[in-house]
Design goal:
Layout: H1 2-22, E1 27-29, H2 32-38, H3 40-77, H4 83-136, E2 141-143, H5 157-170
Parallel strand pairs: 1-2
Helix pairs in contact: 2-5, 3-4, 4-5
Length: about 170
């Protein structure tokens, strides 16, 4: 099987090279990480997500501080409390601890989901801009992801970022 694959690959590459030599193709690359990190859409989404996170984290911290205060109360006043009061306080602490753990898990799931949604939305926006630019600039092939090297003269990442900025400013 290997012996047949090598000659077929060589033949394909030779035909492909002849086709490339016969036509004038325009090829470009896009650095998706740079485009995403430098786009105003990413910054706005990151800031919005950060505000959401801060509020929920603050609420979770407050709940945890309440539990800590109850635990201190139990340690401090436990010897002066009746058995029923101790039991009630211990149950309250356990119940609050479970609620906080559940809220933390839910928060982490929600955060991961929101990040994924924002990434997907931004990915679609970048894809649309890349296709627009390809058509406008008459680019035949645009490469991305997994790129090992590209000459900076064929990198259109800056054009994509600029277009994303223009679209962001329109809103």
């Amino acid at each position: 099987m290997k012996t047949l694959a090598v000659p077929l690959l060589s033949l394909f590459l030779a035909l492909f090279q002849q086709t490339l030599d016969a036509a004038d193709y325009r090829i470009a690359v896009v650095d998706p990480n740079r485009v995403v990190e430098q786009s105003p859409q990413y910054e706005a989404a990151r800031d919005a997500l950060q505000r959401e996170v801060e509020e929920r984290e603050r609420d979770l911290r407050d709940q945890q501080e309440q539990i800590t205060a109850l635990q201190r109360q139990l340690e401090r006043d436990g010897s002066l409390m009746s058995e029923n009061e101790i039991q009630r306080l211990q149950n309250d602490i356990r119940s609050r601890t479970r609620k906080v753990k559940y809220a933390k898990d839910e928060f982490q799931d929600d955060f991961a989901l929101r990040q994924s949604e924002l990434r997907t939305k931004l990915g679609r926006q970048v894809q649309e801009v890349v296709v627009e630019l390809a058509k406008e600039q008459k680019i035949d092939l645009i490469l991305s992801e997994g790129l090992v090297y590209a000459n900076p003269r064929i990198d259109i990442s800056d054009l994509v970022i600029e277009r994303l900025k223009q679209e962001f400013d329109k809103k």
